Automatic annotation (TrEMBL), chain A:
Residues 307-375 form the Mop domain. Residues 2-252 form the ABC transporter domain. It comes from the Bacteria. SUPFAM superfamilies: MOP-like, P-loop containing nucleoside triphosphate hydrolases. PANTHER family: ABC TRANSPORTER I FAMILY MEMBER 10 (PTHR43514), SULFATE_THIOSULFATE IMPORT ATP-BINDING PROTEIN CYSA (PTHR43514:SF1). The keyword Cell membrane applies. InterPro entries: AAA+_ATPase, ABC_transporter-like_ATP-bd, ABC_transporter-like_CS, Mo/tungstate-bd_C_term_dom, Molybdenum_import_ModC, Mop_domain, P-loop_NTPase, Transp-assoc_OB_typ1. This is ATP-binding cassette domain-containing protein. Transmembrane segments: none annotated. Keywords: ATP-binding, Cell membrane, Membrane, Molybdenum, Nucleotide-binding, Translocase, Transport. It comes from Prauserella halophila. One of its GO terms (molecular function) is ATP binding.
UniProtKB/TrEMBL annotation, chain B:
Signal peptide: none annotated. Residues 1-43 are annotated as: Disordered. Residues 14-43 have a biased composition (Basic residues). NCBIfam families: modA (TIGR01256). Belongs to the bacterial solute-binding protein ModA family. InterPro entries: ModA (IPR005950), ModA/WtpA (IPR050682). The keyword Isomerase does not apply. This is Molybdate ABC transporter substrate-binding protein. Keywords: Metal-binding, Signal. The keyword Metal-binding applies. It comes from Prauserella halophila. Pfam families: SBP_bac_11.
TrEMBL record, chain C:
It comes from the Bacteria. The keyword Transmembrane helix applies. The chain crosses the membrane at residues 46-71, 83-104, 124-149, 170-192, 230-248. Part of the binding-protein-dependent transport system for molybdenum; probably responsible for the translocation of the substrate across the membrane. InterPro entries: MetI-like, MetI-like_sf, ModB_ABC, NifC_ABC_porter. SUPFAM superfamilies: MetI-like. Belongs to the binding-protein-dependent transport system permease family. CysTW subfamily. Residues 45-248 form the ABC transmembrane type-1 domain. This is Molybdenum transport system permease.
Length: 377, 283, 255
């Protein structure tokens, strides 16, 4: 029971050629910059685009075998949650959510009951009778999530579901998606059979995004797309924390420190406290990960005095120095709680000025404001 | 009250076309002055009276005579125009050809007419206040039945227009040919059952030419002008309900003497000859 | 808004309002009640309302699918088809009437067939009036709908399909409801155009009281003999048009 994808499609000079599997109950993130082929891939999966050669099977059923087989959009069992909630403006929230069941032949009263249940699970019960025009961006996306799930898809496509939301609304919706997508959270969804077409534990999802944070929060595995080809794949945390290709590092290279969330940061397993800003859905005491970009790390000679506001200071040794576009990426030996060491970006001039080379002792500083603390997937 | 433009455009196209064809070589004749400007000017008159006023105002060196004539007079008046202009080399006769009612309305609204020739007497009576002299009857036009070539519906006489399967088209009662049809129906004790009452006798003829109608009540002159596009089924006694065409000089005529000369040409021997040739009767 | 706009805006308004005002000035109010309640006027009014309504319904039933096809279909022919659909907008109505005659007239290829096979003759009937009105009014509906469909895009339809809705369900429950505002204004435009239709009607359907003589034809007929009567009828036509727009306006034009 899983989604198997093997797609090749050429549009003009662009070629998309990818193969991957999404096991039942898991979430695969497709990470890539604009133009890397993410939308083309989504269109192939949703059935909007007929690939030149492809095999898409879902739970053993062939959806696309090009050339030849192309199951139409409405019959694929693939749901879609887009950047824009796209609630039908002439229907209320509950009518929007009931649209899927109704279209599949469920009687009106029962479809409505199912819709209410899905709204409740999406924490949107109070929005039932509202029109889309009366909803905020976050509220509309909650309803859209409920609607996508109420359609009973065997697989869910998520197309940058958080990128249209403002910074205040995104964490809560990310949390909701974690809850409805993660297999580990599916235990408490067995309380009611109403509206349960596909058990949460068996539904798989493909999340398309350009934001490494979404991958970290929602996905089990990630494939990184570069100009239509998979540049790298693997478990999300491993790929993001230790990119093996320069391309992945450039778009996804992040410093990750796993641990336990606190009110104003995170406790790493080695006892170190990382000061940071917890996201809205991050509860103290729960597993979490502190995230900061290499560019946010300031590098000083060992023993340099504190410069004031940075709250996180780590002494470490330089493990490697690699050119990384216009900057030099410095990587420390495993320390500071990050298993693979900490990455920092410097200008070539700074490297020369500090006289850095592998083995040099350095003092790293990161402002608390630059560190985000997210619940761990 | 101006006519809606769509209907106007269609109705006008026919007289104008025939005029242009006939007039073609004459335009370049050496004896005329400013011949190139005449055609477009006449079109302007036909299209809009106001425009005509404007073009008249900035007129040519020579004299002009504006003759408003019923559309059924297109052929004979075109010929008489040439005759008149040959006699008066410095005069430019401009014909404004349209339905009599329309022309009457235009004159009542102040259009620059020097001579008015109407297809019936009531219209002339309506503009009595705008006339500069007594109207004189100069022609009669009797109704006849136009049928498509071969007479597919087998129309034999006026009685066949009283229903019974054939598609019959007549003029509406408000226009002269319709009024004449009404008089004829009354005289013969017939009740006409038309499929349509057209706004203009040319529309009636068109319906027959395109074979949409099996029969149309039109003027004898129309059948003559249509040539072999239609056949004619005569109506005995139609002369009793014939229209009488009056002509008069208007009160606003810029050169009443010249206008009277044109009127006299129409009333005279030359005029009668030309009118009879076109199928009119002459009193 | 730059104040300068008031000048051309005022001129534009004057161009529309002043002629109508002229009509009001010319009206013979003493004779008005008698003129408007004459059999000919009432039968023309009734015929106009019935035929304009019928042709508006025909425009909606045929025009909505056409607009959807034009907006959604892909291929080279679509551009050509779109241009053809707009033809009645630029064609003089009389030419449209002639074209209809050549198709549905006794000697038109379809008209001949109808006559021989079914014994049906279209010209000179009320049906012909409705056909002529539909011919000239349809582009107004199609153009407003197609614009709405294009600017709206297909995203809602796609989402509905991913929820399991079949194409017909999508059309019924998504496409059509989203089109309703544009459909309202398009239908009002079509009705107005059908109500004022003259040239194609008189050419294709002729003019007979109670059968094919709609208000505009009656206005024209009266103008031959009695200008006061024509003015009164024109006034009636204006009143009907204003009422239609006033009734339909709040839903159709206000957003």
């Amino acid at each position: 029971m899983s989604l198997h994808v093997d797609v090749a499609v050429t549009r003009g000079r662009f070629t998309l050629d990818v193969t991957f599997d999404v096991p039942a109950g898991s979430v695969l993130a497709v990470l890539g910059p604009n133009g890397s082929g993410k939308s083309t891939l989504l269109q192939c999966l949703a059935g909007l685009l007929v690939p030149d050669s492809a095999a898409v099977t879902l739970d053993g059923r062939t959806l696309t075998r090009a050339p030849g087989v192309q199951v139409p959009v409405h019959d694929r069992g693939i749901g879609l949650l887009a950047q824009d909630p796209l609630l039908l403006p002439h229907l209320t929230a509950v009518e929007n959510v009931a649209f899927g069941p109704r279209s599949q032949g469920v009687r009106p009263s029962r479809a409505r009951a199912q819709a209410r249940e899905w709204l409740r699970r999406a924490d949107a019960a109070e929005l039932t009778g509202r029109r889309p025009a009366q909803l905020s961006g976050g509220q509309a996306q909650r309803v859209a999530i409920a609607r996508a799930l109420a359609g009973g898809p065997r697989a869910l496509l998520l197309d940058e579901p958080l990128s249209a939301l403002d910074v205040d609304a995104a964490p809560a919706i990310r949390g909701l998606l974690r809850r409805v997508l993660r297999r580990t959270q599916s235990a408490h969804s067995g309380e009611s059979g109403d509206g349960e077409v596909v058990p949460d534990g068996e539904r798989c999802a493909v999340l398309v995004t350009h934001d490494p944070l979404d991958v970290l929060a929602l996905a089990d595995d990630v494939v990184v797309l570069d100009a239509g080809r998979i540049a790298e794949r693997g478990p999300a945390k491993e790929v993001l924390a230790a990119p093996r290709t320069a391309f992945t590092a450039r778009i996804a290279g992040l410093n990750l420190v796993p641990g336990v969330a606190a009110a104003d940061g995170l406790h790493a397993p080695n006892g170190r406290f990382v000061a940071g800003v917890p996201s809205g859905d991050c509860l103290p005491g729960e597993p979490a990960v502190a995230v900061f970009a290499p560019g946010a790390v300031a590098v000083h000679p060992a023993g340099a005095p504190h410069t004031g506001s940075p709250r996180n200071v780590v002494d470490a040794r330089v493990a490697s120095l690699e050119p990384h576009g216009a900057v030099i990426r410095l990587r420390t030996a495993g320390d500071g709680g990050a298993e693979t060491g900490i990455a920092a970006d410097l200008t070539p001039a700074s490297v020369a000025e500090l006289g850095l080379e592998p083995g040099s002792a350095v003092r790293l500083e990161v402002k608390a404001a630059s560190v985000a603390v997210h619940p761990a997937a | 009250m101006r006519r809606p433009s769509a209907g106007q455009a269609e109705r006008r196209s026919q007289p104008r076309r025939s005029q242009r064809i006939r007039r073609g070589p004459q335009r370049h004749g050496p004896q005329r002055h400013g011949p190139q400007r005449r055609g477009p000017r006449r079109r302007a008159v036909a299209a809009a009276v106001l425009l005509a006023v404007a073009t008249t105002a900035c007129g040519s060196e020579g004299r002009t005579l504006n003759v408003f004539a019923a559309a059924s007079l297109t052929e004979p008046f075109g010929e008489l125009e040439q005759v008149f202009e040959q006699r008066h080399q410095d005069v430019d006769v401009r014909l404004n050809l349209a339905g009599s009612s329309t022309l009457g309305s235009q004159i009542a609204e102040g259009a620059p007419a020097d001579v008015f020739a109407s297809a019936n007497e009531p219209v002339m009576a309506d503009v009595a206040g705008d006339l500069g002299g007594e109207p004189h009857p100069f022609a009669t036009n009797r109704l006849t039945i136009a049928v498509p070539p071969g007479n597919p519906a087998g129309i034999e006489g006026f009685g066949d227009l009283a229903g019974g399967g054939a598609t019959v088209v007549v003029c509406q009662p408000q226009v002269p040919c319709g009024a004449a049809a009404g008089r004829l129906a009354k005289l013969t004790g017939t009740t006409l059952r038309p499929a349509s009452e057209e706004q203009d006798v040319k529309d009636v003829l068109n319906k027959v030419v395109t074979r949409e109608a099996d029969a149309g009540l039109v003027y004898a002159t129309d059948v003559r002008a249509a040539g072999d596009q239609v056949d004619e089924v005569g109506i005995p006694g139609a002369g009793r309900a014939a229209n009488r065409y009056p002509i008069a000089v208007t009160a606003r005529a810029a050169e009443p003497e010249l206008a009277a000369e044109f009127r006299d040409l129409v009333l005279g021997e030359e005029g009668r000859r030309v009118l009879r040739k076109a199928g009119f009767g002459t009193p | 808004m730059p104040w300068v706009l008031w000048i051309p805006a005022g001129l534009a308004l004057a161009l529309v309002v002043l002629p109508v005002a002229g009509l009001l000035v010319r009206t013979d109010y003493a004779r008005l009640p008698a003129l408007l309640t004459s059999d000919a006027a009432l039968s023309a009014l009734r015929l106009s309302l019935v035929t304009a309504l019928a042709s508006t319904i025909a425009c909606v039933v045929l025009g909505v699918p056409l607009a959807v096809v034009l907006a959604r279909a892909r291929g080279r022919g679509v551009r050509l088809v779109r241009a053809v659909v707009l033809l009645p907008l630029v064609l003089p109505p009389v030419v449209g009437g002639l074209a209809l005659l050549f198709l549905l007239g006794r000697n038109g290829f379809l008209g001949y067939l109808l006559d021989v096979v079914a014994g049906v003759s279209v010209p000179f009937t009320t049906t012909a009036v409705v056909i002529a009105q539909t011919f000239v009014a349809m582009p107004f509906l199609v153009v407003s709908l197609e614009g709405a469909l294009r600017s709206g895009g297909q995203r809602y339809e796609l989402v509905a399909a991913t929820l399991g809705a079949r194409p017909w369900t999508v059309f019924r429950r998504v496409t059509v409801p989203l089109l309703l505002p544009a459909l309202g204004s398009g239908a009002v435009l079509s009705f107005a155009r059908a109500l004022g239709e003259f040239g194609a009607t008189i050419t294709f359907a002729g003019s007979l009281e109670g059968v094919t003589r709609t208000l505009p034809l009656e206005v024209y007929a009266q103008a031959q003999a009695d200008v006061d009567s024509a003015v009164a009828l024109a006034l009636l036509l204006i009143v009907v048009a204003v009422v239609v727009i006033a009734v339909a306006r709040p839903k159709a034009f206000d957003r």
